[in-house]
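Q: I'm writing a short explainer about N-acyl homoserine lactonase family protein for a general audience and would like to include a description of its predicted shape. Could you first generate the structure from this sequence?
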Amino acid sequence: MGGTPTDPIARVAVFSTGTVRMHPEHVGPTRKPTPVWLLTSRRWTEPRPINVFVVEHRDGLVLFDTGQDPASVTDPDYFPGRANKLVNARMAKIHLDPSDTVEANLARLGYRIADVGTAVLSHLHPDHVGGLPVLRHANIVVSRSEWDTLQVPRPQMRGIYRSHIDMPGLTWKLITPEPLGDPDLAPFHEGYDLFDDGSVVLLSTPGHTPGSLSMLVRRTDRAPLLLVGDLTYDARLLAAGQPSGLCDKRVTRSVMEKVNALRYTWPDMAVLPAHDPGSASRLAAAVA
Ligand SMILES: [Zn+2]
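A: Of course. Here's the predicted structure. Afterward I'll give you a sentence or two in plain language.
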């Protein structure tokens, strides 16, 4: 899309770094406890995207999430330890082609990896941090509360692998929500305004993980876009207030209620999850 001269957002695009097949119970809704479906489900969804969103702001190029690392399918020791390998194999079937890297996808959109100034991580799971090895020149933004989950005993039990995250040479920026004073964002009263102009605002949307962030992109005279990471795997389930099979359901329900309340201000807001097969076409319609 081309922004109007006054619109700080020049373009918003999405690409997928491979595909993931999940258990339908993982997408949800399900009444089964996570260990039950994780160990017993024999069903898998069709391949779903592992999305990375690209926001070209006049002050810099921003990624929201960084996708899956190709090494996760080529390096047998990417997930250290036999138990972790087994859990990951039960959790998801990942497929990546050589053309699925962040660099190759950016090149198809006309950007170089060096153009990326900031990468915001919705959370620290492997399918969202996979581009970090090629982003040592960029600022990496994550919520402080998500970063703090690295300190819990055995974070890999929560799908968080320090070796893929806390790598040498990365420039981290740990953010905490601040009062925004923007009534349009109610019932969100706090957030993090990335460019200090209200066009890209990070909102705290925990539930999938304790420190998960969403990114609200506001364009002049256009419906806003809400990139929600893994708050849901399907925008229709979020609209219905139905949590996925892998989250804190109580927290997720209350966050979904807040997100859905943003529609009082913006009935046309496009909700764009990381693994929703409908995200790419919904974005295409929103920027047409
Ligand atoms: Zn994910």
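A: For your explainer, you could say: The chain is about 25% helix and 25% strand.
Q: Perfect, that's easy to follow.
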